[in-house]
Design brief:
Chain lengths: ~350, ~190
């Protein structure tokens, strides 16, 4: 038993590394495709004209690829910060009350059990119980829990939840999931920025952060650039929701089962996580501080979508989380199996 | 043609040897590291206990013997500086004694609800729980890693390389006295605050 999980852990890490690379490559390639596609059309359009007016140098492609690569790098580097910032979490540096002391202790314990450095700890001021982990690798990771989770859970249950998050960190799920969140965030940012640019004519500025990236390239004349912007805008309009859904699919729900199992392996107490999940499920209110872009990072769907209640067909495609009842059943199964062979077990 | 097959076979064998050897060495170092982590946590516990005991001394005048037992077990555990093959056993015995002294203290605290109401006793309880958990999770990680290491070096065909990598089975950290194991579990079944 002890050999198999190690192998799967390694495989999980490898798969997460590979998928993160694919995701970033896909993001950059998409920009390159847009840019060079535009160049191709424009050069075909100007082909009948005399040579000086032909479109020789494929600027759009080059610039958009650089912009895409820059955005991807930025999204990757700042992903964890952005995710934490978007939830309004604050970092626990010096714990001030009993619950915070307990949280810090529990995170330290689970870090020891998982054999990784202690992640930084954050609290989200939201009454709904939920939690997530983010970061790019186990050396730079974060765990955030809502105030609701702290208030609702017993020590053992909190330990179960933190163990689950520690599993996500150890098998590098956090890298893939955080990068996904950051890339989706970038697409939404571009989308919003472009909407503003197009609404206000060519005037760039205001609060649209994404718009600023495009104001710099004013080289090729107003008309074609506006067309390209329009195309990017329309595509991002279509793309943003699709990507959000793809994300739900790419982040296979198998991941949550695996993290549950790893959490149980760390705590040796699957029943506590089962009971925490029951409490989280019972408090069905949406976690208002966590938005759709980061939903897949959480231990339970923060949007409170009912899709998660059953498996198969429609729900399989669109839900970010497996059905709670099934997770609880599996954990309880582990608990009973453990209780059965308790006598001979080593501490 | 035949010679090419032979060369390919030798190359594959060489690659396998390297990866099996490196796998064993990596597990060996992980095991050593996990063992060091137990040391770190035990040291932390030794350092923490005097402070904790001082914090409740005043409030627990009537339970002097329990506190003294904790201090004594702690001093005993600090003194153990074992080396060699029996190291795990000796350290284990002293630390288990300390664990059971601490769990008795916890039981005593549970017995006096008034005591629990005072602020620093509740904190003491949390710190003790956490300290004990940290020690046991460090052991758990060590045992898991060591088991993996032992399994790997005994399994065929990696067992053929074990001698070359100087891999010898690592001792697991066991709690020998079943009584030690049972006491805290029975007492903790009381509802906690």
């Amino acid at each position: 038993m002890s050999d198999a999980p190690a192998l799967t852990l390694f495989q999980q890490q490898e798969s997460n590394r590979r998928r993160t690379v694919l995701l970033i490559a896909g993001f950059v390639l998409f920009f390159a495709w847009l840019g060079f596609g535009g160049d191709y059309l424009y050069s075909a359009y100007t082909a009948p004209l005399p040579p000086p007016e032909q479109h020789h140098v494929w600027w759009f492609g080059i610039i958009l690829t650089i912009v895409g690569a820059g955005l991807a790098t930025y999204a990757y580097r700042t992903g964890p910060d952005k995710v934490l910032w978007s939830t309004g979490a604050w970092e626990v540096i010096v714990p001030t009350d009993d619950k915070q002391h307990q949280l810090v202790n529990v995170v330290e314990e689970m870090a020891i059990a998982a054999g990784i450095p202690r992640p930084r700890i954050w609290i989200i001021p939201d009454p709904d119980p939920n939690a997530f982990a983010t970061g790019l690798d186990p050396l730079h990771s974060h765990i955030a829990v809502t105030q609701g989770l702290l208030d609702l859970c017993s020590r053992d249950e909190l330990q179960g939840v933190i163990g689950h998050e520690m599993g996500h960190i150890k098998n590098l799920d956090v890298r893939l999931m955080t990068t996904l969140a950051a890339v989706v965030g970038a697409v939404i940012l571009i989308h919003n920025g472009l909407s503003q640019v197009l609404r206000g004519g060519v005037r760039v500025g205001g609060s649209g952060g994404g718009g600023r990236g495009f104001s710099g390239k004013r080289g090729g004349g107003g008309g074609p650039i506006l067309i390209i912007l329009l195309v990017v805008w329309v595509i991002s309009w279509i793309l943003a929701p699709i990507i959000t859904q793809l994300l739900a699919m790419a982040v296979s729900r198998q991941r949550e089962y695996q993290a549950d199992a790893m959490g149980a392996q760390f705590t040796r107490n699957p029943m506590a996580l089962a009971s925490a999940l029951q409490k989280i499920e019972a408090a069905d209110a949406p976690t208002t501080h966590i938005h759709a872009g980061a939903a897949h990072l959480c231990i339970a769907d923060p949007l409170g979508r009912q899709l998660g209640t059953k498996e198969g067909g429609f729900a399989d495609v669109f839900a970010t989380h497996p059905p709670m009842a099934k997770r609880i059943t599996i954990l309880k199964g582990m608990g009973y199996a453990q209780a059965k062979k308790e006598g001979g077990a080593v501490a | 043609m035949g010679s090419w097959i032979l060369i390919a076979a030798v190359v594959l064998l060489g690659l396998w040897l390297v990866s099996a050897y490196n796998g064993l060495i990596s597990l060996k170092n992980q095991t050593l590291n996990a063992f060091k982590q137990i040391d770190v946590q035990l040291k932390r516990r030794h350092d923490l206990i005097p402070n904790l005991v001082n914090a409740v001394k005043g409030a627990m005048d009537f339970e002097k013997s329990t506190l003294e037992a904790v201090i004594q077990a702690r001093n005993q555990a600090v003194k153990v500086n074992a080396q060699g093959p029996d190291a795990i056993k000796q350290i284990g015995q002293a630390e288990n004694a300390l664990s059971s002294a601490l769990s008795k203290l916890m039981v005593v605290v549970e017995r006096y609800p008034d005591l629990k109401a005072t602020g620093n006793v509740a904190q003491l309880q949390e710190e003790l729980t956490s300290t004990e958990n940290k020690v046991s999770f460090a052991r758990q990680l060590y045992n898991d890693t060591a088991t993996q290491y032992n399994t790997r070096q005994q399994q065929f065909p990696t067992s053929l390389v074990a001698g070359m990598a100087r891999a010898t089975p690592a001792d697991l950290w066991e709690i020998e006295d079943q009584g030690d194991r049972a006491v805290p579990q029975v007492d903790f079944s009381k509802p906690k605050a």
